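Today's session is about reading a structure prediction critically. Students often jump straight to the picture, but the first step is always the sequence itself: look for stretches that repeat, for charged clusters, for runs of hydrophobic residues. Only then move on to the predicted structure, which in these notes is written as discrete structure tokens rather than atom positions. Here is the chain we will use throughout the hour.
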Amino acid sequence: MPKISIIIPVYNSQEFLRRCLDSAIHQTLRDIEIIIIDDASCDKSRDVIIEYTKKDLRIKTRFFKENQGVAVARNIGITMATGEFIGFIDSDDFVNLSYFEELYSYTEDIDIVRGIRVISPMDRQGKNKYGCIIPSIIRREFLLMKNVWFPTNKRKGEDSTFKKWLYNQAPRIFEVPDKGIYYHYIKRENSLSNYTFTNI
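Below is the predicted structure for this chain, in token form.
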């Protein structure tokens, strides 16, 4: 069983995808699997995914024939995951290379380890002000036992809703201290996730 299954939903992200995938495959925590769900991209994202699949045997893929949205893509990734914990990277974002090792080091008797997300270029005022679950790892057994999934009837804010539902299940949560090891969120017009600031 891998320690962490990293789920990466992809939609028309060719410009950023290699940076994202490089940050995943070069994690200092080697005992991981990487699940890439292509949501019917119409650019060259599929070619990049196939290229990386040939590079690293830890990568699993699923290609949608029709665009179904990031929530469906993440849910499919969860069903494919076999890791002890589940983590996420959006395909236009990236993480520091020791990110998942740092989060995993706090997992004993914990259901959710919440990392630190920053806006890139680095905006320290924007750390973790988003209400989403993405900069976290979640114990897969807990997630499946509580039967919590991303809502597929929303096109925006689905991860904030997922976080609300998940936190309502009274998980054991740990927030990592700031050691400069971050999830880097790239703000752009067509981002997979287009968040507004919230205190959720």
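Discussion point for the tutorial: Residues 14-25 form the longest helix (12 residues).
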